[in-house]
Amino acid sequence: MLRRAALCFVISTFLLSSAWQPATAGIVDPLIWKNAQPFDGATQGPAFQTRLNSDILAERLRSRADLGGIEARATELLQLNPADGMARVLLAILRAVQSDVEAARALLEADAVGDARLPEVELSIARALIAREEGTLERALMAARRAVALDGSHPYAHNVLATVVYRRDGAAAALTHMERAAELAPDGATYWANFGATLAEAGFLDRAQSALTRAVEINPVACDVLLGLGRLDMLRVQPVDAAQSFSKCLAVQPDNADAARGLAVALIEARDFENTRTVLDRYAGVIPDAAMLRVEAALRAGNADAAQAGILRMEEGPSRYLALGRLALMQSDAEAALSAFEKIAETPAGRLGFVAAKLALGGDAPEGLVEEGAEQALFAAYGHLANGAPEQALAALNMASYAVPGFAIDGLSVADLATIAPETARAMAGPLFLRLSLTGGAAPQLRQIAEANPDDVLAAFFAAEAAARVGAPAIDLLNSAARIAPDFVVVQVMRGNHLFAQREARGAFEAYGAAAKIRKDPDVLVRLGLLGETLGEDAAAEAAYRAFLSVQPDSYIALNQLAWFLAVRADDLSEAKELAQKALAFQPGNAAILDTLGWIALREGDVDLALERLEAAAMAADGGAPEIELNLVEALIVAGQMDRARAQLAPIVMRVKDTPLQQRADALTSRVTP
To answer: Contact 167/43 with Cβ under 8 angstroms?
Structure first.
């Protein structure tokens, strides 16, 4: 079994709000102390009551970064007592966050302050925010650092320092301060949200997911947090999850334009076009570019009539011409496409569409196209193929790696390209642009070309990839491509993925094995190892895991996977323990690694250590890994703790019914039955 750790090799970016304002946490306003009974005769004055209220507001700002209740309350407090320095500074902080620098400065001017005593930490925070909004980042940095120096346990001070560092030095530099703010205020949703957003922009998507999820747990109705989580899910290519986050925001704020648009876009990416139409109808007055999104949905769905009708309602501009060009290519009208793309040839998408249409009509790809990006290089390659230059085409295809997901030339030879006819290369240009722009007409057009040219390996690959993209796997096309070029890695990987999903273990094992001989891809190697174990090909499985580790020697996934194999299949507990301990050093508290170490301890006869490790693993998995819980039951039985074993096993039995774990659960049940 794969040791329950997600493989993620793609780094992405995350766009933060340019204002970088903390999200309102939605906390209930503080008690109105002036209506409460006084504590004693010495504390009945309004100054004490307003002071108490401003301290409460300051604590809300400190512990939760909650600006939502400050404006009205602090203004009222300041009117009651102009000498309330805390209320004054809190209002200045709010105004600065709202980018109203003039109002923030006015609150802190000597004439306005008078005899009021301004709290030093909050005053430094206010000055940092004012300087930040003015763009004087060095001064902002000095003020923010002073706030942290005055009170190192103040989470909002760390948060403000992080925002200044972020603006000056970028997301990675701000991470330490964002993390510190979240550590100091574990119940502050805003701090976790800001930390998560910064992690995402720095490329740490898994940690970002955890931080943003924590923010939602604290405050499930904070729209800013839900929007951040939705955007992160879109980056992680999880549009269904993103749609759920955007929907939750809309349940709280039905007029939130960002959430409404985010939901529509997520549904389009998920190819849920029926619900896309429903959302666009419901929120047409909220989403500013609803007409464009309707057309996008129609183009993605391959619905030419709906796209045509929607384009007529679009305003004149680049988006309209791009849509017209895509529609024309969907209808195989390269001349109309060229006419539309010519009008926006100065934009990247328009230029690429222009090249595609021109190639389809018999023209040549422009010189220097290969240097402009992967998608452009792909069309440059087809330009070379159209001119009968396979060597140059192969070089251009190398530059076109990952123009579509997974595409690379490993194992592809000049000889594989030499059989591609020039007219076929030109015919591929239009459908390839449709595929790159995710237009629904790509898959059928590419299949038609591939079937008409049975010796064109690229046509077979791109047709199969486009079909898979729209949920119509084409194993016949992949088999055709593998026949033409058996060493073409991406074809073998796609064949393996298809067969793996179909539970055809032997076929998937052979396809992944063919791919691994050419390129040591970690995802392929770990699947090859898993399949090897399933098929009893232990030598191949161990070789795959060791190859995985050689590619990523510091990967806790590779270390733990090999450790588990050695402990369970190879009886090499010594190396297994060494590898698992190294994995734990990279990923402390990981459930799968603790499980491996617990199982090794059990095999070595150290039952107490096994129980300690397996209990920690089960707690870390939090109900998400019944196989770990079954290992714990095994250890409890060995320890003679039969009552605990029965209690632990009882709820698992139903959860694993009709799964591969049922047989083991049944065997353990027979062992604990009195």
So the answer is: no
Nearest to 358 by CA among 406, 311, 325, 399: 325
Sequential DSSP letters for 175-233: HHHHHHHHHH-TT-HHHHHHHHHHHHHHT-HHHHHHHHHHHHHH-TT-HHHHHHHHHHH
CA-to-CA separations, 556 to 30, 239, 585, in angstroms, rounded: 47, 28, 9
Tell me phi and psi for residue 462, to 5 degrees: -65, -35
Rounded CA separation 170/158 (Å): 16
Averages of pLDDT over runs of 10 residues in the chain (674 residues) are 30 22 26 28 39 76 78 77 87 90 92 87 95 94 96 95 94 93 92 90 87 89 88 90 94 94 95 95 94 95 95 92 96 96 94 95 88 92 94 95 89 93 95 94 94 93 91 87 92 92 92 93 92 93 94 91 90 91 90 94 94 92 87 93 92 88 91 88
CB 485 within 8 A of CB 412: yes
- Tokens 């297994």 -> residue: 576
Angle of the 171-184 helix axis to the 189-202 helix axis, nearest 10: 160
Question: CA-CA-CA-CA torsion for 421, 424, 425, 428, nearest 10 degrees?
Answer: -160
Residues 6+ apart with CB under 8 A from 223: 23, 249, 252, 253, 256, 259
Cβ atoms of 182 and 191 within 8 Å: the answer is yes
Q: Is 402 helix (H, G, I), strand (E, B) or coil?
A: coil
Cα Rg, the chain, nearest whole Å:
31
Provide the pLDDT for residue 68. Answer: 66
Q: How far apart are CA 292 and CA 270, in angstroms?
A: 17
CA distance 333 to 636: 71
Q: For residue 605, what are its two tokens?
A: 């006869």
Which amino acid, 87? A
Tokens representing 641?
């703790």
CA 26 to CA 499: how far, in whole Å? 49
What is the DSSP secondary structure assignment for residue 538, as one 8-state letter?
A: H
DSSP secondary structure string, 326-371? HHHHHTT-HHHHHHHHHTTTTSHHHHHHHHHHHHHTT--PPTTGGG
SS3 of residue 14 by DSSP: coil
Residue type, 258: D
Cα(263)–Cα(579) distance, integer angstroms = 44
8 A C-beta contact, residue 499 and residue 513 = no
Please list, in sequence order, all residues whose beta carbon lies within 8 angstroms of the beta carbon of residue 103, skipping any fewer than 6 positions away.
95
Distance CA 63, CA 608 (A): 41
pLDDT the model gives residue 250:
95
Q: Is 146:138 a contact under the CB 8 Å cutoff?
A: no
* Of residues 190, 104, 171, the one with CA closest to residue 143: 104
Scanning the structure block, which residue is given the tokens 């499980």?
595
Are the C-beta atoms of residues 257 and 288 closer than 8 Å to each other? Answer: yes
User: pTM surpassing 0.70?
Assistant: yes
The helix (run of H) or strand (run of E) holding residue 487 is: none
Distance between CA atoms of 243 and 54, rounded to whole angstroms? 39
The whole-angstrom separation of Cα 271 and Cα 296 is 11
Token pair listed for 159 = 């948060």
Dihedral pair phi/psi, residue 499, rounded to 5°: -65, -35
DSSP string, 458-472: HHHHHHHHHHHHTT-
Answer whether 488's CB lies under 8 Å from 482's CB: yes
Structure tokens at 198: 């910064």
Cβ pair 30, 56 in contact under 8 A: yes
d(CA 548, CA 586): 16
